[in-house]
């Protein structure tokens, strides 16, 4: 199946899902091919909004546009209510909803909503360790000085806010977070920790750890993929070579540790045996990250051909062995994603973020539509 046909199949599934989901938002499936739905209470709602905006950009279908607008209205209500916003994943929520609408149709109210979201994220800044606290309230005994690698994908909202407002503090804090992530989450062999703990009183480094990986010292594949993409985006905004090089290093490690079919297991250090869970969502994120990285590497760069081939190999495998191929009874695009194998929560199911990044990768490759992590004027 060629990539354009796959895109058309995702559109068919998305049209059905608009009716199936109504005003609710998908997170993961639970073994039956059907998405569990929520009401703006999680970190994942932006991915459904992002799928709708990508689908509309590709097809220009009014029904997709109106469905996408309705999601933005829901995010506005969430902001006004202050509902479930006390965490670091504000960029995942509002970059793919409010900022996406501003990118697509220059809606001023959506631009202002996205800037409001950036201000909410700034409330997570902790001056002593110079990081954005991932989880929990300020002063929380367990999470008060904790960062996670996922947060790299929330930083583009802050860089964009700095561009929009002229207030450099957004970008300064984002760069400090990226530097702390580079120094403490990326290990010397180019693998990564999922999380890292700092003393919240004096900022001293304590230890690396994990929440969803195999063990504290292992490499959770989705986290490694967040790093590939997040550091490449940090380079786009800052032009600091250290971020580009870190993205490259993480990408090479990811590529070198893939199994024969080029789709990642859930953790690079988990025993790879029959029945070990894959994470197709990690590979979809990895592809998007590498496509971003390739935009900043000249064609003569020694890694350019290697990484370009990796994109094609992973996408070919995702399409041939993991894509649902338009089965109307299944609500997702990519089978065999894993949410939390460690916690036995949807270890082999559809992940809405896997669907989003799979579609973003397809549209980057076929139409040059790059998603919503930066303004298109960049």
Question: Your description of this structure?
Answer:
Helix 1 runs antiparallel to helix 13 and helix 7 (155-165) packs antiparallel against helix 8 (169-184). Helix content is 51%, strand content 7%. The protein is globular, with a radius of gyration of 19 Å. It has a three-stranded antiparallel sheet, with no helix packed on it. It has 378 residues and is mostly helical. The protein is built from 13 helices and seven strands.
Summarize the structure.
With 378 residues, this protein is mainly alpha-helical. The protein contains 13 helices and 7 strands.
Largest sheet: 3 strands, antiparallel
- How would you sum up the global shape? globular
Oligomer: single chain
Can you count the beta strands?
A: 7
- Estimate the helix proportion, in percent: 40-55%
Structural class based on helices, strands and sheet pairing: mainly alpha
What layout of secondary structure does this protein have?
Blueprint: H1 3-21, E1 25-29, E2 35-38, H2 45-59, H3 62-81, H4 90-94, H5 98-105, H6 108-122, E3 125-126, E4 131-132, E5 146-148, H7 155-165, H8 169-184, E6 195-198, E7 205-209, H9 221-238, H10 241-256, H11 280-295, H12 304-322, H13 352-367
Antiparallel strand pairs: 1-2, 3-4, 5-6, 6-7
């Amino acid at each position: 199946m060629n990539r354009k046909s796959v895109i058309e199949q995702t559109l068919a599934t998305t049209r059905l899902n608009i009716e199936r989901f109504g005003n609710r938002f998908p997170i993961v499936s639970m073994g039956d091919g059907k998405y569990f739905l929520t009401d703006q209470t999680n970190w994942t709602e932006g991915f459904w909004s992002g799928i709708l905006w990508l689908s509309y950009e590709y097809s220009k279908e009014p029904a997709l546009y109106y469905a996408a607008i309705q999601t933005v209205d829901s995010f506005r209500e969430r902001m006004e209510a202050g509902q479930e916003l006390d965490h670091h994943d504000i960029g995942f929520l509002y970059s793919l909803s409010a900022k996406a609408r501003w990118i697509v149709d220059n809606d001023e109210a959506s631009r202002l909503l996205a800037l409001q979201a950036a201000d909410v994220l700034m409330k997570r800044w902790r001056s002593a360790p110079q990081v954005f606290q991932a989880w929990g309230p300020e002063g929380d005994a367990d999470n008060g000085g904790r960062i996670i690698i996922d947060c790299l994908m929330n930083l583009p909202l802050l860089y964009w806010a700095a561009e929009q407002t002229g207030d450099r503090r957004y970008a300064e804090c984002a760069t400090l977070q990226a530097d702390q992530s580079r120094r403490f989450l990326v290990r010397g062999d180019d693998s990564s920790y999922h999380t890292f703990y700092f003393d919240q009183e004096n900022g001293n480094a304590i230890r690396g750890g994990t929440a969803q990986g195999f063990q504290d010292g292992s490499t959770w594949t989705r986290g490694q993929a967040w790093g590939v993409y997040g550091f490449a985006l940090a380079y786009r905004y800052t032009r600091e070579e250290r971020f580009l090089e870190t993205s490259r290093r993480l990408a090479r490690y990811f590529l070198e540790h893939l199994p024969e079919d080029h789709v990642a297991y859930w953790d690079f250090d988990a025993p790879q045996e029959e029945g070990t869970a894959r994470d197709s969502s990690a590979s979809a994120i990895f592809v998007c990250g590498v496509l971003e990285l390739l935009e900043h590497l000249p064609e003569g760069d020694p890694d350019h051909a290697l990484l370009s081939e990796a994109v094609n190999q992973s996408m070919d495998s995702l399409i041939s062995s993991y894509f649902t191929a338009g089965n109307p009874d299944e609500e997702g695009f990519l089978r065999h994603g894993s949410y939390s194998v460690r916690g036995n929560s949807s270890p082999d199911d559809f992940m809405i973020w896997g669907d989003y990044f799979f579609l973003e990768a397809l549209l980057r490759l076929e139409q040059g539509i790059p998603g919503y992590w930066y303004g298109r004027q960049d």
